[in-house]
Amino acid sequence: MIRVYLPYLMSAITVYQLTLAGHKKASTWLWGLGNQTLWLTWIISTEAWGLLPMTAALLIVYTKNYRLWTRPAVPSVGNTDC
Q: Where are the alpha helices (DSSP H) in the chain?
């Protein structure tokens, strides 16, 4: 069942994730991290080992982006909006 149905779920999550990214939501990256765990499950169950580098890279990118998007903004020097 994993081999047949999981790709549909992963596809739906990817589309939803891209929608969130378009709305500039920090949760985009959490959905991506969750989806990568599904990808890892699928890779192991189908023995599609060539996709492991992609999954590893995306885990790093999604983690980094989530940290960047949730970090407090630093006021810029010389801001005259006060």
A: 2-22, 27-46, 52-70
CA–CA gap between residue 40 and residue 45 (Å, rounded): 9
Q: What is the C-alpha to C-alpha distance for residues 46 and 25, in angstroms, rounded to an integer?
A: 32
Residue 49 is given by DSSP the state: G
Mean pLDDT over the full length of the chain: 92
- Helix, strand, or coil (residue 24): coil
pLDDT above 90 (res 75): no
| Contact criterion met (CB below 8 Å) for 28 and 21 | yes
Quote the distance between the C-alpha of residue 74 and its chain's center: 24
